[in-house]
Specification:
The complex is a heterodimer. By secondary structure, chain A is α/β, with parallel strands linked by helices. Chain A contains eight helices and 24 strands. Chain A has one domain (about 60-390, about 425-450). Chain B has a domain at about 5-110 and about 180-270: Rossmann fold (3-Layer(aba) Sandwich). In chain B, strand 9, helix 7 and strand 10 form a beta-alpha-beta unit. Chain B has nine helices and twelve strands. Classes of the chains: A alpha/beta, B alpha/beta. At the A-B interface, strand 22, strand 24, helix 5 and helix 6 of A face helix 3, strand 7, helix 4 and strand 8 of B.
């Protein structure tokens, strides 16, 4: 029993279509008899997971405040207040004007606003002219029921995610603007299980930005992101995790990439006490491509943890992974990565690079790359490095008259540039860069909302 | 009038003594060449003057005479730092950036790549830290780039990343032009340069010696550099000491004879050559 706070009865009482309710109950029953992982398991090595006490958290079912985290300046669609409908089963926004971006706000796991209007006035029915849907799950979505649960926490997400958000792009539709899903957490002691499903139809394109922020609470945030890129779809995804310093964040991202489809998925992990993402990328169709480009910066007592799996199932698939991190103060980071090339996946190109800068004597970074190759006609490589700031780079800048501390900051900022340049949502880069620079300059307040002003409205 | 004064300089790198008592004086407006075979300690001299970590001054002195008027104790204000108040600056013990602020500049044989850090960005920080006007840097960089034919597109690249040998040295000449040092130490300025780049960079440096009274210490293996950068004084360095000092004719003599006349017969035992730079290896390659 993980904790009586997370019972099958509780899961069964959550709202949603029948298939979702029965899936919740089944997952909750399975989770209830499960055991918390321990650091003895390879995938949980180096983690503080044994300190987790789920009994300290209660499932949050009520919304609180709306996120004050600034959203990158982008054109916004207006929700239509004329067509107010029943809450759960409806589209939040129609896709009639796809050039304008869509902002969905959640608060403690509940949808609370669309494009700034509160939810009651913002729910819009019917499909737009091009059929883009951004909404909660309904009875027609049973096809999405297949399990993507990679661990106990993903299972708990399946059981206790109160209002999963679905971004559904029909075949052949290009969505030029960015869809923003902004999560806010402000209830102390809450357990929240945000779930985002990006379902990109054949030959469609879409970009989604997910922003995580919180007030200074102790909470348990356990998200799952499912990305399904159908044949020849192009999906860009960026998650900016800037939770408060007492939040535990244990999430997973599962991507299914079909033939000729291209996914670029990124994470900027900045906040949390213990913040972990497990990223499983399955290249399922011939010619599928997955790029994974992430950064993380730890300071104070943070632990940032990434587990990546590049799973090449089909022939001629490509994956390219670049994770860069820095650890300051007494923070810790863990990166472990696995490239798996299955027997049929001839012609695979798979790359994995993880680089870490250790900025203090008491900081600690672990980097463990792995390959498991079951086909000979492949090109794979991995590289990993953990080290202090490059002495020669430091000397070069200093010999020009840049004081040591400034030179170190320039080098660390420059180190992350390679990642920022490749983020799939360029509008979000200035905010991430600014937040990162604040952390590098040691000005960290722990919350993105605390000090940001410029560049946004 | 500034002067770099090196007296009986002995430097250890790791467990090995590389400089065994070097004496040199370089004044404003002068060009000195230090020539010597591989392993003679030339690059170590450049790094030791600039204060690179790992180059330990065992004894001797590196001093910079700034030519500043010494301010009396009574007129000291918070605006003039101790460095501003003295004519003679003891460089040993100062960090590289403090030496740069005192008026030193050095170029490396293989300039270090600094990914994600731009030329202008670095110069702005350097100028601001030295109390200069950050906002003037952009225009100065553009002007200097034009003077040495440094492609404006390259200004926005990361420092020394994906630049040819010639572009790197033009970039260093731009930096020298903006920072306006008192003394420049040029380590193998001509290595990896095509003729045009060498001419452009040398011309800019000569101009600085004439217009800004720059003093130059040019370290070179071959006399090729001296055909474009006229040296007033030539020093021959062997085994970490200056063996001979003369005028430009000394370089001409060297051209004919090589280093043999100056080589110490006792040095025939295998000499461990310290390469002085870790540029050539990386723990990883960019994918």
């Amino acid at each position: 029993m993980i904790s009586p706070n997370f019972s099958p009865e509780l899961a069964g009482a959550l709202p949603g279509p029948e298939w979702l309710v029965s899936r919740r109950v089944a997952a909750a029953e399975q989770a209830a008899v499960g055991a918390l992982p321990t650091p003895k398991e390879e995938v949980w090595r180096y983690t503080p997971i044994s300190k987790l006490d789920l009994a300290r958290y209660q499932l949050s079912t009520e919304p609180g405040g709306v996120s004050p985290v600034p959203v990158p300046q982008m054109p916004m669609a207006k929700a239509n207040p004329e067509t107010v409908q029943d809450d759960l089963a409806d589209d939040l926004v129609d896709g009639s004007d796809l050039a304008e971006s869509i902002l969905v706000d959640t608060s403690n796991g509940r949808l609370c606003a669309v494009n700034g209007d509160d939810r009651a006035g913002g729910a819009v029915n019917g499909l737009g002219s091009k059929g883009l849907q951004v909404r909660t799950l309904n009875a027609d979505d049973a096809e999405l029921a297949a399990s993507v649960d990679v661990d106990l926490f993903a299972l708990m997400n399946t059981a206790f995610s109160v209002e999963p958000v679905l971004v559904k792009v029909p075949a052949g539709v290009d969505v030029p603007a960015t869809i923003v899903v902004r999560h806010w957490f402000d209830v102390d002691g809450a357990a929240v299980f945000p779930r985002l499903i990006i379902d990109a139809g054949p030959d469609s394109s879409v970009r989604v930005l997910e922003l995580y922020g919180s007030s200074d609470i102790a909470a348990f945030v356990s998200p799952v992101v499912e990305i399904r890129a159908a044949a020849a779809a192009r999906v860009g995804y960026l998650a900016v995790q800037d939770l408060g310093p007492k939040v535990w964040h244990i999430g997973s991202q599962v991507c299914h990439i079909a033939s000729q489809a291209h996914l670029r998925a990124s994470t900027a992990a900045l906040g949390g006490e213990y913040a972990r993402m497990r990223l499983d990328t399955h290249l399922l169709g011939r010619g599928a491509t997955g790029d994974l480009i992430s950064l993380y910066y730890g300071d104070g007592e943070q632990t940032l943890d990434f587990r990546t799996f590049q799973d090449h199932v089909a022939p001629d698939t490509s994956s390219s992974l670049l994770f860069k991190g820095a650890v300051d103060d007494s923070s810790r980071s863990v990166y472990t990565g696995m490239i798996r090339v299955r027997p049929d996946a001839r012609g695979t190109n798979a790359y994995q690079t993880n680089r870490n800068i250790k900025l203090s004597e008491t900081a600690w970074a672990e980097s463990v790359p792995n390959l498991e190759i079951e086909n000979n006609e492949v090109r794979c490589s991995h590289a990993s490095a953990v080290g202090p700031i490059d002495h020669d780079q430091l000397f070069y800048l200093e010999s020009r008259g840049v004081p040591t501390e400034t030179a170190e900051q320039l080098i660390v900022r420059g180190f992350f540039d390679e990642v920022l340049e490749q983020f799939s949502v360029p509008e979000a880069v200035p905010a991430v860069r600014e937040r990162l620079q604040a952390k590098i300059a040691g000005l960290s307040a722990g919350l993105i909302s605390a000090g940001l002003s410029s560049g946004y409205e | 009038m500034s002067e770099l004064i090196i007296e009986d300089l002995q430097v250890r790198v790791g467990n090995q003594m590389v400089l065994n008592g070097v004496d040199l004086r370089v004044s404003s407006g002068e060009v000195h060449a230090v020539m010597g075979p591989n392993g003679s300690g030339k690059s170590t001299l450049a790094y030791a003057i600039m204060g690179k970590p790992g180059y330990e001054v065992v004894s001797g002195a590196i001093t910079l005479r700034t030519g500043r008027t010494v301010i009396s104790r009574e007129t000291v204000t918070p605006e003039n730092t101790p460095r501003d108040r003295v004519d003679l600056i003891d460089l040993v013990g100062l960090s590289p950036w403090e030496r740069a602020h005192a008026g030193l500049f050095s170029t490396q044989q293989y300039p270090t790549e600094v990914p994600g850090v731009g030329l202008e960005n670095m110069l702005e920080e350097a100028v601001a830290a030295a109390g200069g006007d950050r906002s003037a840097v952009e225009v100065q960089v553009a002007d200097e780039a034009e003077l040495v034919g440094f492609n404006a597109d390259l200004l926005y690249r990361s420092l020394n990343v994906d630049l040819s040998g010639g572009e790197m040295k033009r970039s260093e000449a731009v930096q020298l032009g903006v920072l306006r040092p008192r003394i420049a130490i040029l380590d193998e300025l001509d290595s990896g340069l095509d003729v045009d780049a060498l001419a452009a960079v040398s011309h800019r440096i000569e101009q600085a010696t004439q217009q800004d009274n720059l003093g130059v210490l040019a370290i070179t293996h071959f006399s090729r550099l001296l055909s474009v950068l006229r040296a007033d004084v030539v020093h021959i360095m062997i085994d970490g000491v200056i063996k001979e000092t003369g005028g430009p004719d000394l370089a001409a003599q060297l051209e004919q004879t090589g280093y043999d006349p100056w080589l110490d017969k006792r040095a025939e035992s295998p000499v461990e050559i310290y390469l002085g730079d870790s540029e050539d290896y990386r723990d990883y390659e960019r994918l």
